[in-house]
Write a structure and sequence with these properties.
It contains 11 helices and 17 strands. It has 405 residues and is α/β, with parallel strands linked by helices. Strands 4-12-11-10-7-5-6 form a 7-stranded mixed sheet, with helices on both faces. Strands 1-2-3-15 form a 4-stranded mixed sheet. Helix 3 packs parallel to helix 8 and helix 10 crosses helix 11.
Length: 405
């Protein structure tokens, strides 16, 4: 016998602590549950639904692509893949792109590139990649090994060797680690780092620190790789997160917002680092016609609607609204930080916690997401309107008031 639509799923593995909400449809910045309740969505599939839900242009192009062809594999030329790679390289500092299905896969490709560069270009036998504490790079075995948060390691030891960690935005910590590692002989292959740490608490990169990283990488012939899975595709208020820091990395990884909700990831590199050959790396589904059509649509709409500038303006408005909220609850709210439409509201220690506030906000028909215990993230679609942001903060304030009553 079949189960009723509202019965809990019992045959899906228990890998998610899901909230009690079944979403059945959405439009723009709004979603609807099985009972017809409407929620204001400031999560956007965790920064993926760049154009919002059920975007008219996205629907038109994806339906057209399905009527044409959805998948062929990378055994053959893929025109949509070539077109998306051309768009990314034309609008960035990079020259070549590899496509996959997720941010973790893109970072896996970056790790393999860094190791091959170390072996082939620098003659390093046992390469090390330096990454930041509180960073997050994915949940595959290599990418959680590259993630500087021990909570993701527990139960999956031993970790993949070859990763060491420094304190984010801390020049002294980085210099000490670099010196200690290089004292063993040339060892450092790459630095893998987020321009803004998302999962680690919405920590924006410091311009002085990142310029120092670039100088050190140039001096030692180390690859500087940016994980832009969350910051890329206009979310920061600039097209790419590296635009906020005044430097160019040697490579970066993309996913999330690139596909507007359709799974796609990418590694983009400069020509001189194009070292991966046929047989070195591959993906059956990576960059298939359907996913690349989604990516092309997102990028072209980003440009046509000037959504990067819109994200910058809406980010400023959101900061203003959250600043007023912090002033109203100084005993419970610490402040805020972020770029564009990736903003974190910081809670004071010992009081409200992010998971509790997220659950209460959901009861007020607002979707937000934690970034640790003391930060809640706002990641709305880049198409969100000013009136919707104001309504989101009003609902958040009601949630806070109810928790404090």
């Amino acid at each position: 016998m079949g189960s009723s639509p509202t019965a809990p799923t019992t045959r899906v593995m228990n890998t998610y602590a899901r909230l009690p909400l079944e979403i059945v449809k959405g439009k723009g910045a709004w979603i609807q549950d099985l009972k017809g309740n409407n929620y204001l969505d400031a999560v956007a599939g965790i920064a993926t639904c760049t154009l919002g839900h059920s975007d008219r242009v996205m629907n038109w192009y994806l339906n057209k692509q399905l009527n044409k062809i959805q998948h062929t594999s990378n055994l053959y030329q893929v025109p949509e893949q070539e077109a998306l790679a051309a768009w990314i390289t034309t609008h960035s500092c990079f020259d070549k792109v590899f496509f996959c299905n997720s941010g973790a896969e893109a970072n896996e490709a970056a790790i393999k590139l860094a190791r091959k560069h170390a072996h082939q270009v620098r003659g390093i036998e046992r390469p090390v990649i330096l990454t930041a504490e509180a960073g997050f790079h994915g949940r595959t075995l290599a990418t959680i090994s590259a993630t500087g948060q021990s909570k993701y390691h527990r139960g999956f030891e031993p970790m993949v060797n070859g990763f060491r960690f420094f304190a984010y935005n801390n020049i002294s910590s980085f210099n000490s680690l670099l010196a200690a590692t290089e004292s063993e002989g040339p060892r450092v292959a790459a630095i893998l780092i987020e321009p803004l740490q998302g999962e680690g608490g919405v920590n924006p990169g410091d311009v002085v620190f990142f310029k120092h990283l670039r100088e050190c990488c140039d001096a030692y012939n180390i690859l500087l790789i940016f994980d832009e899975v969350q910051t890329g595709v206009g979310r920061s208020g600039e097209l790419w997160g590296y635009n906020k820091l005044g430097i160019e990395p040697d490579a970066f990884t993309l996913a999330k917002g690139l596909g507007g909700g359709i799974p796609i990831g990418a590694l983009a590199i400069k020509q001189k680092h194009d070292l991966l050959c046929p047989g070195d790396h591959a993906s059956t589904f990576g960059g298939n016609p359907f996913a690349c059509r989604a990516g092309l649509t997102v990028m072209k709409e980003l440009e046509r609607r000037n959504l990067t500038h819109h994200a910058k303006r809406m980010g400023r408005l959101l900061q203003e609204l959250l600043t007023e909220l912090v002033k109203s609850y100084p005993e419970h709210l610490e402040g805020l930080r972020g770029w564009g439409l990736l903003q974190g509201l910081i809670l004071k220690k010992g009081g409200l916690t992010a998971p509790v506030l997220v659950k209460q906000a959901m009861l007020e028909k607002l979707l937000i997401v934690p970034a640790g215990l003391e930060v809640v993230r706002f990641l709305p679609p880049l198409t969100i309107k000013p009136c919707e942001l104001r309504e989101a903060v009003r609902r958040l304030e009601r949630a806070i008031q109810l928790l404090l009553d």
